[in-house]
Amino acid sequence: MLAALALAIGVGRFALWGAPTVTVTHPTRGPAIEAVYATGVVEAIDYARFGAMVAGRVTDVLVDEGYEVRKGDVLARMNERQPLARLDDARARLRMAEADIVRAQALTNRGVIAAQALDRAQQERDQAAAAVELFARQLEDYTIASPLDGVVMKRNVEPGETVAANTVLFEVDSTARKRIAAEVDERDIAGVRMGAPIAAHADGFPDQVFEAKVTNIRRQGDASSRTFRVEADLLADTRLMIGMTVDVDIVTAERDNALLIPASAVGYGASAGGRPGVPFVVLVDQGRARRVEVETGAVGPAKIEIRRGVDDSDAIVRENPDRLRGGERLRNEP
What we know:
The chain is an alpha+beta fold.
């Protein structure tokens, strides 16, 4: 009898000695933030892409890319020979019409000609004046000026080139107001709301987080990329530069008293359709492993929120749950 009991104790010790050693943790409570990841680019809110109003040859280009310009500054000039000739001709006809009025007025006062002749002279003077005003406005179209304060981002013309009317020759962006334009996957767009906080990271400023809030959600997506454009206005003093690429986290939900466990404690079943399988944890229940499927919420690099499946008091295997089988004996690491 004593020999049988000793044998049973020895077998039990051997079974426990051969069991996997695990470290146990318990859930904690804390804030959980759910966020959608996207890539974006920094844009100017106010910008203009423009060129010549008329076709012709560009004679002078006065700026290059990177130049700061003010509204009304001349960026380029076109060959003005023909419009100047038309304007000079119209001015000459106006001077002749005004001289005709003086003569007609004198003859009318002397009774040599009828008043109707004076009226006709005045009509011709008015038509000549209108032609001068018209040709003067047309001459302005041969000068390309900036419509706003900003920086020349693109210059698509060289002196001597012949350009068509309304061809885009310059892009000027205002640096006063900037925004982030991010492309959000169509699977995530439903969780994005107006005013949601975002955190942006740029390679050019690796130690800085740029904060903003969603100011616009485009209601029509891009069918080819299956994304929706989301915009967030930046602070006026932001260090981000127009054209920079940024990584963006858009907050979709925040909870203050969430149930959290280490990310290393969550395993995943077999993947399906390219997505991870069902998440699970391994509980230590009376010295044995018990695999439990869980519903996760916010996922971070260090901790994961558990929405369903475990309680605050549960003992959970801290690392490598995939290596454990349900029902096997476990040894807690001291």
